[in-house]
Specification:
By secondary structure, this protein is α/β, with parallel strands linked by helices. It contains seven helices and seven strands. Helix content is 44%, strand content 14%.
Length: 258
């Protein structure tokens, strides 16, 4: 195989695959011909997504994954590789967001959220990227957020976590230059997902009102998770020699009557 060729079979890992962007990404990648491995703590929900993949003629496996646990990540990587073969694509999507005023949030909680949103992504990198570098090919996609460039208030560590995630991803891009491994960032704007649906209604209303106050909710439109999934699929489907290093996806404002 030429060092610039892509293999016809490219197994893909998707974390946070039980709902939202992760589930939509698994479906989109499978529809594009990628065998997919779904990882999350809620494996029952992942199995529902995997069943949809199989019904459509695709290939999917499900294994439990807790990105805050070294052993869980190692076990997941081993099982996925044994079942699907060498992993060609990793989509680091798992994350959590909870409301909170920074100076009032317990430091333990703040740190736990960062452990998932940043350190968890690094655990994933450690599990899969060395093999990619050895094979001289592969794609790693980090699902970020527009809070990485336009911080939103009253979301505890979320803005800090996404800023940190993008910092790591940009440094990784430079470190991987010339290896054949592409690290990319997909940065969604406001997107409908399960994130935030478990918030107290009054807290959620307060946070949204503060976004309006600071000019961060200019219109009411949100993206569907499938829009982000399509962007991710485009990134990892780019031919060798092309690196889509950063894609920002935002909801289009409603068309105004003149």
């Amino acid at each position: 195989m030429s060092k610039y060729a892509q293999p016809s079979r490219r197994p893909a890992v998707v974390t946070g695959a039980s709902s939202g962007i992760g589930a939509a990404t698994a479906l989109a990648l499978a529809a594009a011909g990628f065998p997919v491995a779904l990882g999350a703590r809620r494996t029952d929900r992942c199995e529902e997504v995997a069943a949809q993949v199989r019904e459509g003629g695709g290939e999917a496996v499900v294994h439990p994954l807790d990105l805050t646990d070294d052993d869980s990540v190692a076990a997941f990587a081993g099982k996925v590789t044994a079942e699907l073969g060498d992993v060609e694509v990793v989509v680091s999507n798992a994350g959590a967001v909870a409301p909170g005023t920074i100076h009032e949030v317990d430091t333990d909680r703040f740190g736990q959220e960062l452990d998932l949103n940043i350190v968890g992504a690094h655990r994933l990198v450690r599990a899969f990227v060395p093999g990619m570098v050895e094979r001289r090919r592969g794609d790693v996609v980090f699902v970020s957020s527009d809070v990485a460039v336009r911080a939103r208030p009253f979301m505890s560590s979320y803005a800090a976590g996404k800023w940190g995630l993008e910092g790591m991803a940009h440094a990784l891009q430079m470190e991987l230059e010339g290896t054949g491994v592409r690290a990319s960032i997909v940065r969604p704007g406001p997107t409908w997902s399960e994130m935030g649906t478990d918030w107290d209604a009054d807290e959620a209303a307060f946070v949204l009102n503060q976004w309006v106050r600071f000019g961060q909710a200019r219109h009411p439109h949100f993206l569907k998770p499938s829009a982000i999934a399509d962007a991710i699929t485009t990134v990892v489907s780019a031919p060798r020699g092309v690196h889509l290093s950063l894609i920002e996806v935002n909801p289009e404002a409603p068309v105004e009557d003149r």
